[in-house]
Amino acid sequence: MAGEAVMREVTLALPMVPEMEIEASKTATSIAESMQMSPDRIDEVRMAVVEACINALEHSRSTDKEIFVTFEVVGDKDPEKLRITVRDTGIGFSPSELEEPVIEDKLKSKRKRGWGLKIIHGLMDEVEIRSGSEGTTVVMSKL
Amino acid sequence: MTESLNVTVDRREGLAVIYTEGYINNQGGEEIAKVAYKLLDEGFKVLLLNLGGTKIVNSIGISILIEIIEKMIEIEGRLGFCCLTPTIEKTFQIMGLAQYAPIFPNEDAAVGQLRA
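Above: the input entities. Below: the structure tokens describing the complete assembly.
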């Protein structure tokens, strides 16, 4: 993001195996703690990271068999926000064509899943999704 | 590395409390569902899920909890949640679960309300 100073940056390359989302959430916790973020906000970041990683692990069908999670502490003198980018090199999707899940419909439907992006939007302060034939990138921030 | 889920049950008069400890992912959700459906087979129609020992859930695990809610509606039973972390409660609110399965701050309040 132009004009924003990155004070610290960590990138994980995670193999696409079950529960890798937990490894990403542990790193998110450590970095958020180092920024003195409140425990409730750290929990929200953890949950959003878990959801973004699960989406990539479950749906990307990436032939690289890896996802990349970058944590950036953004700020000039003091940390101002934690920006997390979850990237895969999979088949991509069209975010505008996704139907927002509604509990009333899900209760009647056989398919109960599909909540990840709604949860991410609800828990994080800024969310941007870019997706195409070269993969998907979810950029989300906690101020 | 595996984050397993422990599930225990306290059967009481007219109500059963399911306690979870650990990560509620797809396996965790299925474990809870197995226990919940067994309790329904035993005749319990009021269930309380005490998530006090769970600090993290994912949407796949929650989708299995939605299946349990659907089943409870079908049998005209009652399901409630208690002792959620603020983030899990916020997530349930985002998803709209609280409209169908009330969330209580503690077990006493939940038991009192669900038995009423």
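Note for the figure: The interface with chain A takes residues 1-3, 23, 25, 55-60, 62-64, 66-67, 69-70, 73, 85-88, 90-91, 94-97, 99-100 of chain B (CB under 8 Å).
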